[in-house]
Structure formats: structure tokens, C-alpha cells
Design a protein that fits this description.
- The longest helix is centred in the first third of the chain and has 19 residues, at about 5-20.
- The chain is an alpha/beta fold.
- The protein has helices at about 5-20, 40-50, 60-65, 85-90, 100-115, 140-150, 175-190, 205-210, 220-225, and strands at about 30-35, 55, 75, 95-100, 120-125, 155-160, 195-200, 215-220.
- The structure holds pyridoxal-5'-phosphate (PLP).
- Pyridoxal-5'-phosphate (PLP) binds near residues 201, 202 and 221.
């Protein structure tokens, strides 16, 4: 067994155990394998082990890497996206997890229209209120959702958050729970369906799964420590 296979088995085991604790089926939870700073050959190897969805945090890195990987791979944008990269993002990504402003959504809508597609997105929410972090303020979510939902070429599938890092992983749980509650609130208020919750990374995906994550974004636990660190 390769190191990658061992890592992936361990992640699947942790995920299944967490799902079981919450009486959920592990099949409801999709792994987005985060490939920032991971070489294309290694992504190809990951494809061979059954992973199909990969997450990149920078458009430029993704643009260089994606053409070098088999077209069976599906790509998600998980990092902060600048408006001037909207066109490339629409061309590259099946789902954009990190939409955090009406301005960005308007640009994505325009680019999707020109490309003749509808762009699925998630809205990133800064649940913890940490300064300097991207994401919508929870109190702005409902109004922003309504504005973005009016854009013809954008399809909002759900919400995403990044919990603050803490030694004690249980400290992340209230943030994940809050994202789910926020989702339930806006679903009721606006009468729309937001099925996806993208939350949980290598060190904190278990509480995220227990709190209702449908996508976990996992890099280090699958591919090992990155040599260049960036959020
Ligand atoms: C890097 C990154 C991840 C994955 O982090 P790991 O700790 O390596 O699992 C998840 N989400 C976002 C937004 C990231 O930038």
C-alpha cells in the first residue's frame, strides 16, 4: 500500500466513525482533496485511488496544474477569489466555495453568461467573526443571498466556513453548528434550498461531519505536510 492509500484509508475511517456518531451515512459526505502545493503527478495518483474532486486555493496555481491532470478530475475553488480572476475561475471550476461579496458574484454571473454556463457556488461565511478573515458576516447573509440569488447564471448550492485554528478541536464545533443553524434559518426565511455545507479540514473535520458537513476539504491528512504553507 502506498503512503497516499494509507493516508486516505485513515481519513475515510475517521470520516465513517464521525458519521456513525451522528447517525449519518458516510456517503452523504464528499471529500474535496486539497491539492495546493501538490504536484500534478501526485494528483494523478490520488485519482487512481478513487478520489475525484480536488480543491485549489489559487487560480494561478490551478491554471498551471489542471491541464496536466487527467480530465476525469473535477476541480473546486476553495480560496479567496479576486474579481479580476472571475473569468478564469468560471472556466476552471465546477464549484466555487468562497464567494463572499455581491460584487464578486455579479462578475461571476457575467463571465458565466459569456461562457454559456451556469456557475454553481457556495457563500463563505465568517461565522467566528475573526478579524482579517474573508467571508460574509452572518448578519448580512440573508440580504446577500437574496441579491446573489437574483443573478441568472449563478446557482447557490450552500454555505462554506473555515473555523479558527485551536489546539482543542472541540473549539471548532460551535462554529460548524452555527453554520448549519444559519443555513436552516435562511432556508426557512427565503424558502430556498441550500443543501451543501462545506466545512472541516484535516484537523477538524470530525466535529464538522457530526454537525452536518456535506463536503470536507482535506489536504494535509491525505497528501502530507505542505512545504509551502498558505491558507
Ligand atoms: C488549505 C485549505 C484546506 C485544507 O487544509 P488542510 O489542513 O491541509 O487539510 C481547506 N480549506 C481551505 C480553504 C484551505 O485553504
Amino acid at each position: 500500500m502506498t503512503e497516499l492509500e494509507r493516508n486516505l484509508n485513515a481519513v475515510r475511517e475517521r470520516l465513517a466513525t464521525a458519521a456513525e456518531r451522528a447517525c449519518r451515512s458516510p456517503n452523504e459526505i464528499n471529500i474535496v482533496a486539497v491539492t495546493k502545493a501538490v504536484q500534478p503527478e501526485c494528483v494523478e495518483e490520488a485519482l487512481g485511488t478513487g478520489l475525484t474532486v480536488f480543491g485549489e486555493s489559487k487560480v494561478q496555481e490551478a491554471m498551471a496544474k489542471i491541464p496536466l491532470v487527467s480530465s476525469r478530475a473535477r476541480w473546486h475553488m476553495i480560496g479567496h477569489l479576486q474579481t479580476n480572476k472571475a473569468r478564469d475561475a468560471v472556466a476552471l471550476f465546477e464549484l466555487i466555495h468562497s464567494v463572499d461579496s455581491v460584487k464578486l458574484a455579479v462578475e461571476l454571473d457575467k463571465c458565466a453568461g459569456r461562457a454559456g454556463k451556469t456557475q454553481p457556488i457556495l457563500l463563505e461565511v465568517n461565522v467566528s467573526g475573526e478579524a482579517g478573515k474573508s467571508g460574509l458576516r452572518p448578519e448580512d447573509l440573508a440580504v446577500t443571498l437574496e441579491q446573489i440569488n437574483a443573478l441568472p447564471r449563478i446557482e447557490i448550492r450552500g454555505l462554506m466556513t473555515i473555523a479558527p485554528f485551536a489546539e482543542d478541536v472541540e473549539k471548532a464545533r460551535p462554529h460548524f453548528r452555527r453554520l448549519r443553524e444559519l443555513r436552516d434559518e435562511v432556508q426557512n426565511k427565503l424558502g430556498m434550498q441550500l443543501p451543501e455545507l462545506s466545512m472541516g479540514m484535516s484537523y477538524d473535520f470530525e466535529p464538522a461531519v457530526e454537525e452536518g458537513a456535506t463536503m470536507v476539504r482535506i489536504g494535509t491528512a491525505i497528501f502530507g505536510e505542505r512545504r509551502t504553507h498558505d491558507a
